[in-house]
Amino acid sequence: MYGLEDFSRPRALVIEQRQGFNWNKPLNLNIERNYKLHSSSFHRSRHDATVLPGDLSLLPNRKGYVTINLSRVAWRHGQSITRLILPMDAIDDAINF
Question: Do 14 and 55 contact (CB within 8 A), yes or no?
Answer without folding.
Answer: no
